[in-house]
Amino acid sequence: MPETLFDDAGAEAAKGQEPLAVRMRPRSLDEVVGQRHLLGEGSPLRRLVEDDAPMSVFLWGPPGTGKTTLATVVSRVTRRRFVELSAVNAGVKDVRAVVDEAKRRMGMNGTRTLLFVDEVHRFNKTQQDALLPAVENRWVSFIGATTENPFFSVVSPLLSRSLLLSLESLDDSEVRALVDRALTDERGLDGRYTLTEEGADHLVRLAGGDGRRSLTYLEAGALVAGSPSKDPVEITAEHVERAVDRHAVRYDRSGDQHYDVISAFIKSMRGSDPDAALHYLARMIEAGEDPRFIARRLVVHASEDVGMADPSALQTAVAAAQAVDLIGMPEARINLAQAVIHISIAPKSNAVITAINEALTDVRRGQAGPVPAHLRDAHYKGAADLGHGKGYRYAHDFPGGVAPQQHAPEGLTERRYYRPTQHGAERRFSEILQKIRGVLKSEK
Question: Angle at Cα 349 formed by Cα 344 and Cα 355, nearest 5°?
């Protein structure tokens, strides 16, 4: 079973052979980049560390956000014996062996153990249940790392005994800070390399908020750039491209490219061209665009340009947006693509956005008469004396669930905001609405 003791002299000999991302792991909480919501003064994790209290914690977040790093730093700071298991290849026997050894050491000399289980969501129910006695009796301090929602992947008894901490993808400035530190730190490239601005932009885009990936790509770029002699070697975007085999997409997330590509993306879906829409989706994904931004545009477009012509398009778009939050990238690219295809090939109608915009225009022009008396709230004492609710017709008492009565304020009874098209499901809705409006109008 993997075990790390931080006073192990052999660790020094292995330095330099480790990947850059491993060498650059923070040595204290103050060196951790990102996750300020977890590491600020008075935050739960910092309190647990500074008070050196027994703990059981789940770290939930996308890859490369620092789950293993935080577990390692916690062990360094608290000086606990650190044991790491991977749920990919560990079983109940391994868990019990760690717990038994932890109990033995605690009884003999008071040494406490921090058990870190990576990808804990891969443990089945029996394996997770094996952790319960150790967590409940605090024989070990437990940290479980997962990229999947613990509410779906972790058994309730274990989750209820633990603190759940959500980690977020690093933003561009945080990734850049990691890269800059690795370029100059003696544990990293130690000033032997520099990185061009274009190379840094490309590397940050490729990282996609994943700190580990950014350092892996930086190290690969340095290998392509060549060994330094007297002067530092410059790493360019071309070096990163060759190392990672990923072309630098020319895309500025705050400039013209951002607006041009998203505009083309929306107009391709509106124009019922799924192939073009998928192309622009791929460009945004490859350039590191925030998938939540893409998902939000899909949700808007599903109502703005499809609407009631295919009401299920909105359901698909919302489901894709939820999938982005639930499983993250890169897997969520599939859900985004499904929504793009659905919206692209769906029948189109802008009747929904036209309806709400026209209604808002009337209200802003002051065309907002008093609510008809029979529709006003009649539940409070004295309302009946004011005539509130008098003459109201309960829709369910009438054939078809539609009562002939006036709902709009005076002056607006003839306004028709929603005008269904003859596209898709709206053809049927148009027929239904015509009948409904006929019944409503018969009140007069």
Answer: 140
334-369, pLDDT tens digit by residue?
A: 999 999 999 999 999 999 999 999 989 888 888 877
Helix axes 256-270, 274-286, angle to 10 degrees: 150
Q: Kindly report the number of other CB atoms within 10 A of residue 158's CB atom.
A: 23
Q: How far is CA 301 from CA 71, 116, 441, in A?
A: 42, 44, 33
Provide the pLDDT for residue 258.
66
* All residues at 6 or more sequence positions from 133 whose CB lies less than 8 Å from its CB, including other chains: 99, 139
Domains by residue range for the chain, with CATH: 3-166 (3.40.50.300), 172-244 (1.10.8.60), 256-345 (1.20.272.10), 364-441 (1.10.3710)
| Helix (H) or strand (E) run with residue 215 in it | helix 211-225
Dist CA 363 CA 383 (whole Å): 26
Partners of 349 in the β-ladder: none
By mean pLDDT, which of 14-28, 214-228, 306-320 is the weakest? 14-28
Question: Which pLDDT tens digit goes with each residue over 22-42?
Answer: 888 888 888 888 888 888 777
Q: Are 157 and 192 in contact (CB under 8 A)?
A: no
For residues 409 and 368, the answer to whether their CB atoms sit within 8 Å is: yes
Half-sphere exposure for 30 (CA within 13 Å, toward CB): 1
